[in-house]
UniProtKB/TrEMBL annotation:
One of its GO terms (molecular function) is methyltransferase activity. This is SAM-dependent methyltransferase. The lineage of its organism: Bacteria, Bacillati, Actinomycetota, Actinomycetes, Propionibacteriales. It holds the Pfam family Methyltransf_25. It comes from the Bacteria. The keyword Methyltransferase applies. Keywords: Methyltransferase, Transferase. The keyword Methyltransferase applies.
Length: 171
């Protein structure tokens, strides 16, 4: 079996979110499953619902995190956030890394959906790899505005090593 490493940027973001054993987390854009693996390793009674539009991303996450699927801590679905209509109503945290949805187009419907499903005090955590520093101001501005317009209180976190930025919306 090949041991897959977890990139420093993903580790930093998940550490920042301070996953608790009973959290209920939605991951938007699970891709290869590194974030899902790290989040699930910290859950006991909590659960992770991971989604991705890509069939290959879903397959990769399922393979990488098979033990968490079997344990009932992880559910993975091929779906985009706009069409998410499953009964995920008690989220404590939402996690997305390098998901451009929140800054390249109007995502007000998707963010309203998150606001409806995140419990008071819960957070939406949008992280971006900041390797192209010239894009960071636009990413922060557009993602922050989208979250604030939906009623989230927004804060920004920035990491130089790894080069990443987080836009955090607290309900």
């Amino acid at each position: 079996m090949v041991v897959q490493t977890i990139p420093a940027r993903i580790r930093w973001a998940v550490d920042f979110m301070d996953i608790q054993p009973n959290d209920h987390v939605l991951e938007v854009g699970c891709g290869p499953g590194a974030g899902a693996e790290l989040i699930c390793s910290r859950l006991e009674t909590g659960k992770l619902f991971a989604i991705d539009r890509s069939e290959s991303g879903v397959d990769r996450t399922k393979r990488r995190c098979a033990k968490y699927l079997e344990a009932g801590r992880l559910t993975v679905r091929q779906i985009d956030l706009a069409t998410l209509r499953v009964p995920v109503k008690r989220l404590t945290k939402v996690f997305a890394f390098n998901v451009n949805l929140f800054w390249v187009r109007d995502a007000s419907a998707e963010i309203a959906l998150l606001h409806e499903r995140v419990l008071p005090g819960g957070t939406v955590n949008l992280f971006y790899e900041a390797t192209q520093r010239e894009q960071v101001p636009e990413i922060i501005e557009k993602s922050s505005k989208a979250l604030a317009d939906a009623g989230f209180r927004v804060s920004i976190v920035d990491s130089k090593v790894p080069a990443a930025v987080g836009i955090i919306g607290r309900r």
